[in-house]
Amino acid sequence: MKKCHITFQLNGRTCEVLVDPNQTLLSMLREDLSLTGTKYGCGEGDCGACTVLLDDEPVNSCLILAAQVDGHKLTTIEGLADGDKLHPLQTSFIDKGAIQCGFCTPGMILSAKALLDEEPNPCELDIRTAISGNLCRCTGYQKIVEAVKAVADDCQGEN
Amino acid sequence: MLLPKFDYNAPATLDEACRMMAGYGDRAKLLAGGTDLLIALKKKTVTPTQVVALNRVDEIKGFLSDGDGLFIGARTTAAEIALSDLGPAGQALTQAASQVGSPLIRNLATIGGNLVTAMPAADMAPPLLALQASVVLQRIGEQREVLLSDFFISPGEQVMLPEEIMSMIVLPRLPEGCGGAFEKLGVRKALERSIVSVAAVISLADDGRTIQGARIALGAVAPTPMLAQEAGAALCGRKATAKNFAVAAEIAAREAKPRGLRTSPVYSRLMVEQLTLRALTRALEAANL
Ligand code: FES
Ligand code: FES
Question: Do B82 and B97 meet the contact criterion of CB atoms below 8 Å apart?
Fold first, then answer.
């Protein structure tokens, strides 16, 4: 097994890593780069705990080989805050009580971010569809939908 | 879950990919969206020594249309298809694409992969069958076009040679006055493998009422995605009425060959009938828009 040398943009920085060809993106993030905000749930594309943004689109990092991100842009939950200042979605999730155990939260927030970047003023159905690949075992989703909606309403106010 | 050991290859062109596949033969597996392959690797149901990733081969991604029809690159994702405008008949396909897996899966899963894995419940297969699609299979210096209705053999098996790569899907140009629709039954709204799916495409004569041609295709109710040929034929030359649609739906239910794996065959057939009725009704609406 020949190792693969890959270069990609990770949370705004250029990153060079030597990965195993049979290593998933999720395992590279968690084990090699110690970015443990991205969670390992099912490993089969069912739960969305491992969501990352690949070229700004939300995807399951457990279904991607690390080698495949060579030359691409990657955003993980660690890339959202601006220094100590949390991303508005992160603040909103805290304010609205949309986090219980927190295991689904990084994935939820990234799916929501991708939606809001695309459609700043989504309806409830848009929000529910956007997070339909992210499972939450704690909150019952209502508070999560409210937290996303609050951010959407906020940016509407700004405009 | 550890993946089996393999080498990773990332050819930049289709030609280079074909060369690699010719050299490796069945020791290699092609990687497109990865939503099926990665799971198969984790479960070790496939153990290739080489993985040939197509994610740099951009020539087999995207849409191209000319006078003869529409060409969809095999690497085009379900999300890209869901967002595309393929006309009133092509809606059958866009609707199916928008119901594949979840948004996260749709950003990865490709139309080619959905066909190559040859799963009976593959969402995009019925609309493509109803749209008379064919697929282009490529190997070094040679390509062949196979009708999708001749492509599937059995669950997980299709006609491709180990060294072949699916490069595109061809949808023949349809006459004016066509409409299509897709219906799917699952037990939940996302991340669902269909229990029954139905695609219908009808073409209307100038009077807007007489059916010139109808194609109905079924998913998850036979060892492979299938055309309900008799049901489609029964509508030819008939008026597009609820009564005639009901007759066709009943024939489609009879043509289905459910194996009773996830639901009882009786239930599957009843659902084929209902979904066919709905798909035809919505296809008519689309044709009349
Ligand atoms: S860990 Fe990737 S979807 Fe569950
Ligand atoms: S907060 Fe626990 S899984 Fe969502």
Answer: yes
Closest CA to B130 of B213, B208, B73: B213
Strand B63-66 and strand B69-73: the pairing is antiparallel
Tokens of A21: 């060809």
* B215 domain residue, yes or no: yes
Alpha helices, H only, A62-123: 88-95, 105-118
How many angstroms separate the alpha carbon of residue A131 from the centre of ligand 1? 13
What confidence tens digit (pLDDT) does each residue in B119-155 have? 999 999 999 999 999 999 999 989 999 999 999 999 9
Amino acid at the residue B42: K
Instruction: Establish if A31 touches chain B: CB-CB under 8 angstroms.
Output: no
Cα A106 to ligand 2 centre (Å): 10
**What is chain A's alpha carbon radius of gyration, rounded to the nearest angstrom?**
16
Alpha helices in chain B (DSSP H): 14-24, 37-42, 78-83, 87-97, 103-106, 111-116, 125-130, 229-235, 242-255, 265-288
CA angle B160, B161, B162 (to 5 degrees): 115
Q: Whose CA is nearest to atom 4 of ligand 2?
A: A136
At the fourth CATH level, the homologous superfamily of domain A88-158 is [2Fe-2S]-binding domain (1.10.150.120)
**CATH number for the domain harbouring residue B271:** 3.30.390.50
CATH of A4-79, one of 3.10.20.30, 3.40.50.11440, 3.20.10.10, 3.40.50.360: 3.10.20.30
Mutate to test the interface with A, among B1, B61, B102 (most CBs of A within 10 A): B102
B286: left (phi over 0), alpha (psi -120 to 50) or beta: alpha
Task: Flag whether the ipTM exceeds 0.90.
Answer: yes
Contact B225, B218 (CB under 8 A): yes
pTM here is 0.95
Query: What range defines the domain where residue B149 resides?
Result: 58-172
